[in-house]
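User: Fold this; tokens only.

Assistant: Input:
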Amino acid sequence: MRFAKGHGTENDFVILPDPDGELHLTEADVRLLCDRRAGIGGDGILRVVRTRALGEALAPSARTAERTEWFMDYRNADGGIAEMCGNGVRVFARYLRHAGLVDADRFEVGTRDGAKEVAVEANGDITVDMGRVERLGSSSAKLADRTVDGVRISVGNPHLACEISAPVAEVDLRTLPVLDTEAFPAGANVEVYNEVGPGVLQMRVYERGAGETRSCGTGIVATAAAATPPGEGATWRVRVPGGECTVFLDADGARLRGPAAIVAEGETSLLGSR
């Protein structure tokens, strides 16, 4: 079957065009495709499917996606289904343009967190309207080498964004963070960050279902929101190991701007004749 490979600030994805919704992906399929030795390799899967092909499979939380033509069916590398992916939406939008499926500079993409408006900027970056960001109180996470305290943030998916005093490069993110299961019954992404200059944050992330990744779009937004006093607006440049994105926060919610690239296309036999 056909595939493409893309990334946004080195958060990389295997892209599977399935316009008519004929492909049934199992968790084992996703894990194999994302395997960096036995598969194509990626932090997740982006299945490109027409929204109307999903029918009753569209979750209630995604109902505003019904008005969109294309739906981003996102899966984490472990095969689990995720509600939202900020870098993934940008890469998905780039693919729609690259494949000639969309020719507008501004359009909507369907996600499990509803319709997301994207805009292709003059410099080639893509901006995604991430919607409202919710602050849900405080919590903590036990990492391999320390316990960190942070702010619970929802960007359509759950996050714990933790400001720390040590440089983020010193934090051990090799093992699964231990979270409060009452606060995070479905797990969460965990970010550690510092403010390294006026309007500039440095961040690393352990992504639920993927481990430490080079970037996380929703995590970038969650970190910017955690660093901003409640009720205030702000613009943050957020640096991650894979590059840099900009977050714009105001009364209407958050917008995430950054690069997205398609780097390869081809055929894979990993899923047999599908």
